[in-house]
Sequence to fold (181 residues):
Amino acid sequence: MLRVFVAVPLPARARQHLALLSGGVPNARWARPEGLHLTLRFIGDVDYGTLDDIDAALLAIDGAPFDLSLSGVGVFGASRSKGAHALWAGVEPSPALEALRDRVESAVVRSGQPPETRKFSPHVTLAKLREAPDRHLHAFLQHHALLRIPGVRVDRFTLFSSHASREGQIYRPEAEYPLEN
Fold:
């Protein structure tokens, strides 16, 4: 069994910029820079036969490359740090990204997976939080509120598998799908 998801890998320039933000929040488990990505669809645990079905469905997706911008930071979870569980960089609204996400969702469902029930909230997870002190979390959010990384080129999406390690999750590309004009 493999734990899999579909995501847009970020270009090196964007990963480097986001990696510079990692710090200043105690009890944060920062994402590894090489693993920073924008999830289009979390799938979960699948066997290799199902992985082949998902791959075949994703191969049928076409679309043109596009640019998006990362903007701002926030948290998932309650506004109080004890409930905050993830720190993220936001993504500015993008019709092209929404369209790609919709095509990925349709392909994953056609491959036999259940539909996603959660609303798509495009973001890049920067850190997992565990009882981060309010004042540090608030300071981080204030300091990076105006984060803006324009011109992030999306020219492919990837089917990743996720593997737990002591240093955090390791993401391995299982298949890549280019977006071409």
